[in-house]
Specification:
The chain is α+β, with helices and mostly antiparallel strands. It has a single domain (2-194), classed as Cyclic Phosphodiesterase, Chain: A. The chain is 24% helix and 29% strand. The chain has five helices and nine strands, in the order E-H-H-E-E-H-E-E-H-E-H-E-E-E. Strand 4 and strand 5 form a beta hairpin. The longest helix is centred in the middle third of the chain and has 15 residues, at 114-128.
Length: 207
């Protein structure tokens, strides 16, 4: 079973996101109907932003890492986020994964902020416990769907022009287990790591 640390979308917000990007001729629902079995949509309850992937983490080491994460994250301010335009991995035209981008409020151009602090704290805690970290740079996003070969390259350009513009105010991170059962739910959130309330006046400016 694979494990990761994530910010989980509240079900209501996840439903709003799917409602904006799913229906219509340029939406995921239509893509799925055009290519039956080739589009696997994530359940509303599974939508999340991954902070760090742990892989097949040994059960006997989990309590110690969970304690370190709780101590490291408790003082950090909860980020104020916005869910923005969709994208794809590895790239448009060869899509295997469709996602919605995530920006920190007031930082449309990226840069350091509360979300970056949070991701760095998670990575630091994982490093202390010998986790092999993902070498790719942190690129905040919410995965929406995974595509099989028949649907790759068939995503309408208009899908990428959508911008949900949804405000998201997570209050804590979760330890999440990938179930791998083929059922309606792909993930199970477990340990919770609450964050401090967001600072008044927004994220500090470090530029």
């Amino acid at each position: 079973m694979r494990h990761f640390i994530a910010l989980m979308l509240e079900p209501e917000l996840g439903g709003q996101l799917q409602g904006l990007l799913g229906p219509g001729p340029a939406g995921l629902d239509e893509l799925g109907r055009a290519h039956p079995g080739a589009v696997r949509l994530h359940a509303t309850e599974d939508l999340h932003l991954t902070l760090e992937f742990l892989g097949e983490f040994p059960a006997e080491r989990r309590p110690a890492l969970a304690q370190t994460l709780a101590r490291a994250l408790a003082p950090l301010a909860a980020p104020r986020l916005r869910i923005v335009a969709p994208g794809a991995f590895p790239e448009r035209g060869r899509e295997r994964v469709l996602w919605a981008g995530v920006e920190e409020h007031g930082r449309a151009g990226g840069g350091a902020g509360d979300l970056a602090d949070l991701a760095a704290a998670v990575r630091g805690a994982c490093t202390q416990h010998g986790v092999a970290l993902d070498p790719r740079p942190f690129r905040p996003h919410v995965t929406l769907a995974r595509l099989r070969a028949a649907a790759r390259g068939q995503v309408p350009d208009a899908f990428y022009d959508k911008n949900p513009g949804l405000e998201w105010k997570p209050t804590g991170a979760r330890w999440v287990v990938s179930l791998g059962t083929g059922g309606p739910r792909a993930y199970r959130p477990e340990d919770s790591f609450p964050l401090a309330p967001h600072r008044d006046g927004g994220s500090r400016d470090r530029t």
